[in-house]
Amino acid sequence: MRARIYAPLASAATLPLLLAGCSGSSASDDEAVAAPPMRLVSYDGCDALLDGLRQAAAERVGPFGLGVPEPYGPFATGDGETAITKGAVPGPSPADAGRSAPQHSGTNVHEAGADEPDLVKTDGRRIVALARGRLQVIDPATRKVAHTLGLPGGDGYRAASTNARLLLSGDRALVLTPRTPMVMYDGLRPSAGAEDAPRPGPPRPQTVLTLVDLSGAPKVIGSMTSDTVYVDARMTGSVARVVVRSTPRIDFPAPSRDPRTQQDSGRKATERNREIVRKAPLDAWLPGFTVGEGSAAKTYRAPCGQVSRPASYTGTSMLSVLTLDLSRGLGDPSPVGIAADGETVYGNGSSLYVTGTPPSLVGLPRKGAAPRSQHTDVHMFDVRGAGRPRYVASGSVPGTLLNQYALSEHGGNLRVATTATAPPKPGTQPPATESTLYVLGRNGPRLDQVGRVAGLGKGERIHSVRFIGATAYVVTFRQVDPLYVIDLNDPRHPRVKGELKINGYSAYLHPTADGKILGIGRDADASGRTTGLLASLFDVGGEPRRVASYRLPGAASASDFEPHAFLYWPSTGLTVVPVSRPETGAGEALALKVTGSGITKVGAVRHEEGNGEGNGEGSVQRSLMVGGTLWTFSDAGARATDAATLADRAWLPFAQR
């Protein structure tokens, strides 16, 4: 198989070349754990691409094929987002040209320059929400639902619209809908004599992208469908980068289920499946992205020259990065493919990072390969401009990531926080865990380690990470919550400059207006048993200390795992998180006031249950600010509340599909 190494594409001015090394590590050299060197290589033509994909799949195929397609469900990572968006508000439509937008909150995103899909979006003049399988358009000035629009769903797929997310740019909304087959494949009971007959594969998950025009009554102006699993997306201006993954579309015969011949049949079935893989066409691996419907539909695939693989292995999954300019409509998504897995996406408007776990950790190892250490591969793309992403560099770090907040680009370096698990020795306690913060720098087409801080939370796992400028805040937990403050001003010599141990843990960290850190998570007793919701305010100006806390026994918040659900309004300190408590049933929005020295409860906002059925549709999921009004959202409807007093202003029930 022929391959060519990518040349670096980013300039040295914007991404300084940094030499590899561990001299900046706070751990001794004999403790250093090196991840395998990483880079992407591209294939030299379609023949080399097909040969490489066939070989990798043939090495991993078994009697039942390549396995049931990966789990599909709600949007993949549950990664959070934080910091109120500071980007420019999209331009007004002609009808709103004379109407200025009131001050409003945006989606709580990780980086201000990269918007993230969510259930609710606003530009201050309109609110667009997804609920009950419909796009709900609200006029915040009149506090009325102005329009609704049905979304794609059904057709043998289960509750597709309940997992949809959206992006908003001017008068265009892009709805991203993962579709899950209702009938799962069992693949275990072929009819008598049918073992050798190829059978249809299991129903495949799909990703459906729907472009909606909001300049008047909302209408669908474009659609794109693919047999892929949605991973995540980021948008800068009107340009969205959508990341999906797929598995080969190959049908395999079922092996015999007769226990008397099962072992021999399994060997024969494996070899037969290898032959099937060796004859499969290239389109079995390259997903098609179909724009439009019927006779006008057109399908796009990644060109062979835009597909690559990690230098050390070829995966059986295909990771695809799509580029869509909402202002131009849906057309060729200019897909870029990587024969590897992808799980976590981080972007800041100029760079897009996709991370994944090598195949030896998620499936069968390559034939003859020794077990590989636990590590995460990182691929970096330059996404400046509206064109196809340009590959820049790849790297690898030991351990696994919590979510996208464990990644941060700063000063030309990538900071990565991971937790590694050491295999247990026979007769010993459970596997040992330890967390490390790595600093990676560009070295040609590689992201090499230039510094690290090891030994964080031994025996514990990372529960939250937040990078703010040249400082990192890392929370680990098992029985108590060590909050580590890490100085990254010298990326080659990062150091822990403070540590605070308290009961419980913070699952999400957010900077406040006066430079403190607000943590939302779980309270716990001395044994580590969680007892309810905990909000903590930390002064991190010197040695970290907790200056205030608020507890709600027996409660939990979705903000623990979904930072989109978190709202912080800097001008007043109003903080809103959804909470659920067994004794009250449906969830509510808890409103707190956070000052420089305290956290106090303002009140709670509750919603009516849909049709009074008590089915959980009234559980609050999101909140945002428009002017002086706090808006909260559930599947049942939206409520407008006075942000200062929490006095009710309006209840807007959402229409059913």
From TrEMBL:
Any matching Pfam family: Beta_propel
Protein name per UniProt: Benzoate transporter
Bias type Basic and acidic residues, positions: 257-272
Lineage start: Bacteria, Bacillati, Actinomycetota, Actinomycetes, Streptosporangiales
Swiss-Prot/TrEMBL keywords: Signal
Annotated stretches, region: Disordered: 85-116, 250-272
Organism: Actinomadura litoris
InterPro entries to which the protein is assigned, alphabetical: Beta_propeller_containing
Signal peptide: 1-27
Record keyword Isomerase present: no
PROSITE patterns: PROKAR_LIPOPROTEIN
The UniProt record lists the keyword Signal: yes
